[in-house]
Predict the 3D structure of the following.
Amino acid sequence: MDRPNGFKFVGTRPDRPDGMDKVTGRAKFGADATAPGMLHAAIVRSPHAHAKILKIDSTKAEAMKEVKAVVTRADFAEGLTGENWNILENVMAGDKALYDGHAVAAVAATTPLAARDAAKLIAVEYEVLPHVTDVDKAMAEGAPVIREGAADKSVPDGLHANVVRYHESGHGDVEAGFAEADLVVEESFKTEATHQGYIEPHACLGQLGSDGKGELWCCTQGHFIVQKTCAALIGIEASQLRVTASEIGGGFGGKTTVFIEPVALALSRKANRPVKLVMSRSEVFRATGPTSSTSMDVKIGMTRDGTITAGEGVFRLQGGAFPGAPADLTAMCAFAPYALKNVKQTGYDVMSNRPKQAAYRAPGSPMAAFAVESVIDELCKKLDLDPVEVRLKNASKEGTKSSFGPRFDRIGLVETLEAAKAHPHYSAPLEPGQGRGLSCGFWFNHGGETSVSLSLSEDGTVALSVGTPDIGGSRASMCLMVAEELGIPYENVRTTIADTATLGYNDVSHGSRVTYASGLAAIKAARDVVNKLCARAANKWGIDKEAVIWEDGCAKPAGPNAGDFEPLPLARIARTMGRTGGPISGHFEATPEGAGMSFATHIVDAEVDGETGQTKVTRYTVVQDAGKAIHPSYVEGQFQGGAAQGIGWALNEEYIYGEDGRLQNAVFLDYRIPVASDLPMIDTVIVEVPNPGHPYGVRGVGETSICPPLAAIANAVSDAAGVRLTELPMSPPRILDALERQAHG
Amino acid sequence: MQYHTPGSFEDAIAIASFAEGVTRFLAGGTDVLVQLRADIVTPDNLIDVKHIDGVTKIEREDSGWRIGIAVSGAEMSEHPDLHNEWPGIVEAMDLVGSTQIQGRATLTGNLCNGSPAADSVPAMIAAGVSVSVAGPNGTRKVAVEDIPVAPGRTSLEKGELISAVHIPARGSDGADAYLRFIPRTEMDIAVVGCGVNLRRDGKTITEARVSLGAVAPTALLVEEAAEAIIGTALDDAALETLAAAASAACNPIDDKRGTIKFRKHVAGVLARRTAKIAYERAGASI
Ligand SMILES: Cc1cc2nc3c(=O)[nH]c(=O)nc-3n(C[C@H](O)[C@H](O)[C@H](O)COP(=O)(O)OP(=O)(O)OC[C@H]3O[C@@H](n4cnc5c(N)ncnc54)[C@H](O)[C@@H]3O)c2cc1C
């Protein structure tokens, strides 16, 4: 690490700079954007899970005087290929509607109500086709084909056309490994799709002229990708579209692509007026990206002393009507926490008549952990071994050849397990009827393309521009890191999320990359500024630049000149910078690749009401390696958030499709995310095993926190109920069924 | 859509009698406005009943209570005496929604919305509550169990509305209770609801009414369940018979909120648990 003398600002907990705006209502979210002459749009959506679109008749809608434009697929770019084609097909259906809620047309009118009424007047003629929404059924012989020819070369012959990607990895000989085991447990698991449940529905305001120049304000995790994708989908040049990200009311991976933005732009181009488009909650559920649903088989062998001899997993992921379910990531994460001699994992990416899946924190990893960690738990129970000791015995460490190939760099799994073992929670006695569960979890973390710039004001304050929307308090962390480098107060740094015209390209705020990558870039940009400040001081003093150091916010003469001149504070240099060489700013652009892989261990206590099947999570402890916690409160917030969402996923959240292929529960009343009273206080332990790939040791923390909960809760519930739960969500009827099956042998 | 604010029941009846298309009364609006926004029901006439005299009062009546049709759940919970006499009705209404919803939602709206899962309805049925139905042909008194006829439908005729809710006198050695099952801890819809009202003489139950919600097209008054505990001291055998009778009375559907099997089973569990609470509240111990 670069700071042997420790930190002055990093590791403290100042208020977040965006906090006041958010609590006073001054913060502008997606739907807060307005423009003169603005129109309002509504989208017509398919009520069918799978249907040919025979005819779209908008004459009645267009006859309304309030209506200014109607668009269908014909109003978007033609000739797209690859993922852009998939995204366009999802944004606006072509020949077929592929899922309940698929957009087929859109209308812009002078008021929101008129737009809604007009949308109802657009008559769409469908020929309903057979549909499939379950992953196993979608792979089975005779299942309706979502799109012929969607599979890529990875898929072996003989599989159903809905299997579009195939992944296989591992090493050693699993059969030989199973033969060495004293006990082999094999179990099948299923998980339902869940939605990120971000509280802010997608919203945008688009303006596009016939000259191909446009502006877009939207709620997104990555406005640069929005710019690139929208430009492609509506057929304009990327640089002619300026995209500004609003404040964001949650994303969790679900706002890393586009749904409504190209539609607003296409309508605007046609109407020649700005168009605002805001999704309703039911549109969010029906037509944005939930997770994949899964069907998984896991087999693990163990010796009596707790050594895992082999692990094998088959992971089938349904990702909606498009390729892209993260079956490869699920497979790669499954056994990552363990140093295995023999391991094999297979993944299937399967299409079905559901909305296109999107990332939801650590895409694919939580389900894998659910299956693998449940089987490990079962082995521990049957062999009467301590779950922490078994995991410690098999844990991946620096140098371990990972289950997915590369050797691990410095990682902190063992440290999280040791901290979990030492935590009072792990040894606390349980009340009657309660059970305890434990699980580890793994996520890769990501670097990604990053650009930042940092500029000084004459008064000695600084402005940092980053291109990664703040989805978890990252502005506070950026300010802390810049304050640390420059040696000026936290309050003297302001971080802004700059628009696409103001800064170089930035990858989306995903992959837990922001505090790592934008943070690294902010530190480097600050060092760029420090260099320039030192040069100005050297110039003033008439000494070599190399003989000036930066310390405590001041340029100081060093080496042979030490003590010769009064230290020059940043504000003093800034005040005269116009006359001493011009404005000072720093910048940094890179694609950093040392994101630092991340592990966590969760401990959960749960209580099951044997008569109703209701589960209560009574105690929860998250232990996770953060590398270095820049702002510990927001690290803890990420830990708690992952656990809270995991509790929902494990216990009650699910996409429920009817026989007709329609989503049955597209409202928060029936899509049951946990309410505050459903959750215990979630305790957190921050472990810090520095990431060698970041100047301060930061590892991303946003995603790993959702990897262990499904498994840890399932292990706690299974312990409390005395029966293994293998299907999520573990809703009360499912738990009662399991208890009944158990009672009847 | 036309919005009306009648100042009297006569005016409300007149407007409703001549209204064309879909008519809705607006009490708290926590069902009506939600359904409007979700495109489920768009009324042609919306008749706001909150401007009618006396509709926000809770008053004594024949040693029981008269609850105005615009009294909110919060006003019931905060009333100094109502809760002591009818804790079951009050706790049932208090389960509706959140603090914000409690400031608006009414007993009458909960009943007339016609949801089989409405929380206050089984509690009212168990307590023997009746309502006044005012219409072009005068006012009639109707038992709560006779108001809902199917999901979303009531026995009220065109031009009729409820003008008051009547809770009977509590009398001695009696109590009521209500429990519902939801997968979460709040902000959810009953998968099963159960109201029990009983009276005892010493340890023996002398009168009882048991009602179940969310397990049939309308809330049920289950006489077999009541008979299972009348004459007993709520011993284990009585509780088992009660549970079996409650389960047997169910005629639920399989849907996103619960399966038939689950609802039947939990109806029995809740009947047992609710009866125990009512019994203890009535001053007996098991
Ligand atoms: C967030 C939320 C949570 C909820 N949670 C619950 C819950 O936990 N349990 C539950 O049971 N309900 C719940 N509800 C539903 C609703 O709040 C209740 O049904 C409430 O009691 C309705 O009362 P209201 O006064 O708002 O009715 P309104 O919406 O005003 O009216 C409902 C219906 O009653 C009719 N009506 C009203 N007054 C009269 C009258 N005098 N005569 C004839 N008909 C009349 C109307 O025409 C309408 O059809 C919830 C609603 C929301 C929005």
Remarks:
- The domain at 2-168 of chain B is CATH 3.30.465.10 (Uridine Diphospho-n-acetylenolpyruvylglucosamine Reductase; domain 3).
- The first strand of chain B starts at residue 2 and ends at 4.
